[in-house]
From TrEMBL:
CDD domains: AKR_galDH
NADP-dependent oxidoreductase domain ranges (all copies): 16-287
Gene3D superfamilies reported for this sequence: NADP-dependent oxidoreductase domain (3.20.20.100)
Lineage top rank: taxon: Eukaryota
GO molecular function, one term: L-galactose dehydrogenase activity
GO biological process: L-ascorbic acid biosynthetic process
SUPFAM superfamilies, per the entry: NAD(P)-linked oxidoreductase
Pfam families (UniProt xref): Aldo_ket_red
Protein name in UniProt: NADP-dependent oxidoreductase domain-containing protein
Species: Brachypodium distachyon (Purple false brome)
Amino acid sequence: MELRELGSTGLRVSPVGFGASPLGNVFGDVPRDVARATVRRALDLGINFFDTSPYYGGTVSESVLGDCLRFSGAPRDSFVVATKCGRYKEGFDFSAARVTRSIDESLARLGLDHVDILHCHDIEFTNLDQIVNETIPALQKIKESGKARFIGITGLPLSIFTYVLDRVPPGSVDLILSYCHYGMNDTALVDLLPYLKSKGVGVISASPLAMGLLTDNGPPEWHPAPEELKLACRVAADHCRKNGKSITKLALKYSLMNNEISTVLVGMISPEQVEENVAAATELSTSGIDEELLHEVEAILKPVKNLTWPSGIQQA
């Protein structure tokens, strides 16, 4: 896979990123030998970006990812690791004291002396002025200490990114991680890309399958999407299946087509999943996407295009 520039960081990352939340057993138990084999296969096939959080599996994802990276024997400069702070199994805490403690805990679990990226995790669940006035300055000190090379913010509502970036000093935030806003059913992130570029902020997208909406199995029961969106995605998945195609592969290819999005995070739980995801990226670069099927699916999803769901607390 051809590596992409990640904003102004100087980092170059694989277009398919390894979402490590499944390593926290959040979708079922992952035996350690399977986890190690999955990360090893990812590295072998050119995936160099790994994303985790202390929230995933209540710190399990970080510990397992750290073990897998050590077991792989890969040199530290051959992979990029992002973790997060502010969201924990116990709840949200974006205070300067907590995030400062958080990075030390994360590094211990990962077995690293630094992470490449430290994100504020799902900032819509606190007052955004706290992120601006307290959390980001604390993360800047962490960056100065060398424990994190770059700083990011994550969340679902796109308005949180402009709110924060318009209020912090230029260069304070290097990256944003957006999820469920760049896929076949929702491309709202596209409207924000020129703004982010003007701020020198890199873009990471996650959940190209819309947290299970764009899969044959469909979303988990707890999925917060409105029923009309779930139904439309089910019809689209059925249409692909009747044509002998996988909506999952089509959706992943679609999400990889925009080069202004540096990397697309996909949760992976087995070497086979890694191979499927890399195959989708490779096929895209060699033979493109099934345009006819894509147009048919887009027509099915058009009535629910960019339909999303609420997340976080109401901002004043």
